C-alpha cells in the first residue's frame, strides 16, 4: 500500500512538472511604466531628498482614503485610467517597500518619477529624481529578479508579452532647456535641442527593445505652454506660443522616430500617442467638455503664484470636477479621465486581461472647499 501511494505521488509530481514544462509559468500580461510626474504613483515619496513631492495635502483627496499617495493630482493618472479600461493591473511604484517578485509578476512595475526627463541633466535642481536612463537601469534589475524566480525562458516570454509605456519630455523643456540655469539652454537652438532630445529617446527605446520590450507606447507632449505655470510668465495670462511650438516639434520628431524603430527592430510594435490636439481642445473649449476653468489651478496659494505644488495652506476650488488643472503643472482627475478616454478612442486600445475587473475609479468630490472660484 505504501509502495502504491509513493508511485501515485510520484506520478502526480511528474504530471505537474510535465505540465509546467509544456505550458510554462502562468503569467498574466502586466505593464511597465516609465515616466515623470504625470505618471508617478509614489516613487518620489520614497526619495527623501527630492524636492519634487506630492506628499502634502491636498494631493490624493479624491483617491482611496483621500490622503497623499504619491500621485501629482487629486486623483488618478492617465496611465491609471487607460490601464483600468484595458484590464491591466495598476503597477506599484518601484520603491514601494512591498514590491517583490510575486507582486511584479502579478502587477508589473511603475518607474515614473516626478522631475525626471529623457536627459540625465533634466530636473537636477529637484536633487533626487529618476531620469529615463536610471528608470531603464532599475528595469534591468527587475529582470534579474524575475529570471531568478521563473527562469530565463519564462522571463523572456513574460517581458516580451508585457505592455510598456514611455511618457516623458515636458521636464526636458520646462525644467531644463527653457531655464537659463541649465547649460542646454545656451548650448542648443530650438531645432538642435529637439533633435538631441529625440536622438537620446531613440537610444533609450532601442535599449528597451534589447531588454525585451515589444509592445510599447510612447506618449507625446500636450500644449505645455498652456499649463498655469507657463501662463503666469505672460503679461496677458495667455499660453506661451514658443513652448507650445517646442512640444509640437518634439511630437513630430518622436512620431517619426517611433515609426522608424518599428520598421527596423525585430517584432517591435511601437506606437506613438499624440495627445496634443485632445488636450489643446480641452483647454481652448473647456465648456464643451463640462469644465469651466482651464487656465488656473484648482489648488493654489491664493494670489501668490506660482506655488508649484499644493501646500497645507492652499485654497481649493469649489468643484474640482470643473477644473482642467489641479496644480500649476498637472491636470485634475476629471481632465485625466477625459484625456485617457479620448486617447483610447483615438488609438483603438483593446482590453488585454479581460477576466480582470478594473480597479475602483474614484471621481472628484465637492468638499472640502476653501475658495469661491
Automatic annotation (TrEMBL):
GO terms for biological process: lipid catabolic process. CDD domains: SGNH_plant_lipase_like. This is GDSL esterase/lipase. It comes from Buddleja alternifolia. Keywords: Hydrolase, Lipid degradation, Lipid metabolism. Residues 349-373 are annotated as: Disordered. One of its GO terms (molecular function) is hydrolase activity, acting on ester bonds. Belongs to the 'GDSL' lipolytic enzyme family. Pfam families: Lipase_GDSL. InterPro entries: GDSL, GDSL_Est/Lipase, SGNH_hydro_sf, SGNH_plant_lipase-like. SUPFAM superfamilies: SGNH hydrolase.
Amino acid at each position: 500500500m505504501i509502495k502504491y501511494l509513493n508511485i501515485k505521488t510520484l506520478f502526480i509530481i511528474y504530471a505537474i512538472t510535465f505540465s509546467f514544462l509544456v505550458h510554462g509559468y502562468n503569467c498574466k500580461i502586466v505593464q511597465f511604466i516609465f515616466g515623470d510626474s504625470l505618471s508617478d504613483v509614489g516613487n518620489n515619496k520614497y526619495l527623501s531628498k527630492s524636492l519634487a513631492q506630492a506628499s502634502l495635502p491636498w494631493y490624493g483627496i479624491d483617491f482611496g482614503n483621500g490622503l497623499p499617495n504619491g500621485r501629482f493630482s487629486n486623483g488618478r493618472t492617465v496611465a491609471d485610467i487607460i490601464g483600468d479600461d484595458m484590464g491591466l493591473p495598476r503597477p506599484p511604484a518601484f520603491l514601494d517597500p512591498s514590491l517583490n517578485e510575486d507582486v511584479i509578476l502579478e502587477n508589473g512595475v511603475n518607474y515614473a518619477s516626478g522631475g525626471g526627463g529623457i536627459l540625465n541633466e533634466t530636473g537636477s535642481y529637484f536633487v533626487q529624481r529618476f531620469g529615463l536612463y536610471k528608470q531603464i537601469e532599475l528595469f534591468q534589475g527587475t529582470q534579474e529578479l524575475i529570471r531568478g524566480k521563473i527562469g530565463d525562458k519564462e522571463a523572456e516570454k513574460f517581458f516580451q508579452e508585457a505592455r510598456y509605456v514611455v511618457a516623458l519630455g515636458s521636464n526636458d523643456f520646462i525644467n531644463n532647456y527653457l531655464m537659463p540655469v541649465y547649460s542646454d539652454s545656451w548650448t542648443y537652438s530650438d531645432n538642435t535641442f529637439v533633435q538631441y532630445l529625440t536622438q537620446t529617446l531613440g537610444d533609450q527605446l532601442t535599449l528597451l527593445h534589447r531588454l525585451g520590450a515589444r509592445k510599447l507606447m510612447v506618449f507625446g507632449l500636450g500644449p505645455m505652454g498652456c499649463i498655469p505655470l507657463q501662463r503666469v510668465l505672460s503679461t496677458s495670462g495667455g499660453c506661451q506660443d514658443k513652448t507650445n511650438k517646442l512640444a509640437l516639434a518634439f511630437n513630430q520628431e518622436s512620431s517619426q522616430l517611433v515609426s522608424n524603430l518599428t520598421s527596423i527592430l525585430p517584432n517591435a510594435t511601437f506606437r506613438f500617442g499624440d495627445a496634443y490636439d485632445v488636450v489643446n481642445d480641452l483647454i481652448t473649449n473647456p465648456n464643451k467638455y463640462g469644465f469651466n476653468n482651464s487656465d488656473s489651478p484648482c489648488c493654489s496659494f491664493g494670489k501668490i503664484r506660482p506655488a508649484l505644488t499644493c501646500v497645507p495652506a492652499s485654497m481649493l476650488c469649489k468643484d474640482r470636477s470643473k477644473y482642467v488643472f489641479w496644480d500649476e503643472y498637472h491636470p485634475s482627475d476629471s481632465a485625466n479621465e477625459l484625456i485617457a478616454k479620448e486617447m483610447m478612442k483615438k488609438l483603438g486600445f483593446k482590453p488585454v486581461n479581460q477576466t480582470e475587473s478594473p480597479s475602483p475609479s474614484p471621481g472628484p468630490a465637492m468638499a472640502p472647499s476653501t475658495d469661491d472660484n
